[in-house]
Amino acid sequence: MSKSHFYSILLPTYNERKNLPIVVALIEEYLKDTPHEIIIVDDNSPDGTQKIAEELQHQLGPEKIILKPRSGKLGLGSAYIHGSKFARGDFLIIMDVDLSHHPRYIPDFIAKQREGDYDIVTGSRYLPGGGVAGWSLSRKVISCGANYLTQLLLRPPISDVTGSFRLYRKSLFDTLVNQCTSKGYVFQMEMIVRAVKAKLRIAQVPIIFVDRIYGESKLGGQEIVLFAKGVLQLAFLE
Description:
Elements: E1 7-13, H1 19-30, E2 36-42, H2 49-60, E3 65-67, H3 76-84, E4 91-94, H4 106-116, E5 120-124, E6 131-133, H5 137-154, E7 166-169, H6 170-179, H7 184-197, E8 202-206, E9 208-210, H8 221-235
Parallel strand pairs: 1-2, 1-4, 2-3, 5-8, 6-9
Antiparallel strand pairs: 4-7, 5-7
Helix pairs in contact: 3-6, 5-8, 7-8
Keywords: Endoplasmic reticulum, Glycosyltransferase, Magnesium, Manganese, Metal-binding, Transferase
EC number: 2.4.1.83
GO molecular function, one term: dolichyl-phosphate beta-D-mannosyltransferase activity
């Protein structure tokens, strides 16, 4: 009988008051037989996301819902570092709260990790069985172009380097995340590039990425330019 692991799910939030309770309810549904905790890191959302998080904690209890809010919008990478400090899990699961990452895939991540004792399991839109839903043609073109550029320059061992739906072995996550210097979308790529350099064991599972249901997409022209610069910098990472 294999040891039952404990899982910490990190949910960085900013203006996700409508999405957060849905995501938490789905996590509870799909992980009802799996030991876990949910760590919510809200960056002082003006829409009252923290108030919703407090209500969820009241409903599910402080052992299940851990609240670690911050004073302002300080970035995704630092939100993971902050949340990880309070995580009790053997493994961390990071995901977006905008419903683009469906919690139904979390059991697949856990099963894949156990299958090969992997250090990282990442969701991929580009594996058979994966894909995107709700995207415009221009968004699909940008995404495919970004992924092609990444594959060409970085030659990673996985098909979707920019994905942010992942499972990490906690001890290794802390090491990787503290080495990273990138921000935004490039942060996810740097984590994988550094993991490959450290010879960590990485696996993939197919996911369907669904465009956000409530709220506005955070992808804009400035992010695309920063992404291209980031790929070029990572291509020469020592």
